[in-house]
Amino acid sequence: xxxxxxRSLSAQSSFLKTASxxxxxxFAFGDWKPNAPKYELRYNEGSYDMPHPVWDMKSxxxxxxxxxxxxxxxxxxxxxxxxxxxxxxDLVSGYKPGQADENGYLERLVRTESLSxxxxxxxxxxxxxxxxxxxxxxxxxxxxxxxxxxxxxxHLFALLELKKPSLLFRIGLLASQTYFIFxxxxxxxxxxxxxxxxxxxxxxxxxxxxxxxxxxxxxGKFPNWKDMAAPQAAIEYxxxxxxxxxxxxxxxxxxxxxxxxxxxxxxxxxxxGERLPGMxxxxxxxxxxxxxxxxxxxxx
Length: 300
Fold this sequence. Notes:
The protein has a four-stranded mixed beta sheet. It starts with a helix and ends in a 6-residue tail after the last strand. The protein contains ten helices and four strands. The longest helix has 33 residues.
């Protein structure tokens, strides 16, 4: 009953339209298009996951490493804080580009993803409460922030299939999360623009780390990762092929980071009270026998 109701609501929403499974589309907000891979937005009736991008893997293989040049003092503050945060992650995990082994990458990525799910949830909560208190609509941002938070959490659990944190590791992450939650809450309440710009810069760094890991796999540096199968949960979430490898999962995760990079930089440029243009491409269906099966178009 609930599933049917959700599907009905999705079909009736003005900004969620069906799309062909065989024709991935380029994401867009009105006339604005991010520098990101092609995708489809899928809603899996067999899970509680929010609708999320499923990437065209050929397109996701070729992402561009970009950097948003600061244009004002707020951007410079965001960039400084992002560099400091990335440097802290590198230091505590012992990560150095081109020199890290498998464990170094896992340390870096798990620490990053354990905090990456915070901004979307905190930002969404603040915007939700502000919308309630002011009795004004949010104009479309909350949904995207909550989906980002869930998506980053999916990254973490996918990586935890390989990395089993010790008690000391968990305590350190808990302390970092506690500090980061309150810090980001204050920043977002004072300046959503700086907060989103900060996250955009963080995602720039994450895209680079995933790219380094993929390149090291391709160069033969990590033969175990090259032939390692992707976790089943990752295959279902990103609708990967049944025989997908760990590398394929990293490619999909990198595409997620690219999208978060682009959207947060876009959100940082929104003017107060500006409504988001419509978005497209919802495909509902189920994931069975290691394959995504779209629902009939008349039921989507």
